[in-house]
Amino acid sequence: MRPIDELTAEIAAARAVLGPAERIVVLTGAGISTDSGIPDFRGPEGLWTKNPEAEKTATLSSYVSDPELRKRNWQRLAEGSMWEGKEPNPGHRALVELERQGKLHTLITQNVDSLHRAAGTSEERLVEIHGTTSKFRCLDCGDTAPMEFALERVRAGEADPPCRICGGILKSATISFGQNLVMADLHRSEQAAMACDVLLAVGSTLTVYPIANVVPIAHQAGAQIVIVNAEPTPFDGLAAAVVPASISDALPLIVAR
Prior knowledge:
Strand content: 15-25%
CATH superfamily of the largest domain: TPP-binding domain
Number of helices: 11
Number of domains: 2
Radius of gyration: 19 Å
Largest sheet: 6 strands, parallel
Shape: elongated
Distance between the termini: 25 Å
CATH topology of the largest domain: Rossmann fold
Mean pLDDT: 92
Low-confidence stretches: none
């Protein structure tokens, strides 16, 4: 990552691509939320680096087979969400501005923190490809509801609250390791990539599949690629512009009219 004042040419190149665009698809990863105080997962200060059990909790087979693991996880959630007090940053708000300009076709996020929703991105424009921690879902019948409903039950004494409809196991409405993506969301994302004139990848390593495929899909369909990320990605060679800067600093400059 380089200081923003050293990236005048890169910012200008990104603006030149986005300026005339009419159908922009955005893919965001963990990097857009780090300035909101949300750590990544595998970095030196990452959630899973500091708490290996959190990674185990995110593995479906472990979560389903270990009631004690589920109880500890519910207790952590009930004591305070990992996103509690976290607010959208200028990067999230810049993408809301892109929507206000009438340019945003679809925003695909790999994040589960719901900060795009909090910033004001419209429901109809948003694909939370890895789900969200703001809801829970029954693994058996699929019933879903706001997470707070389940947390109220935990605080009232239910250590591992079962589904009230079928008695099944509840978990946050996120996609865990070993769990399939929602195919309708993946299909929508791929269709958006084929329809856009620019794909803007923000804060993603672009190494998590299958969603990283939207970048080559868009490129093959004739879209230009812009990448804003602190570190290099495997698709930098496809990009018309690469901006290795702080997202909170760079993205408002890139989308501003």
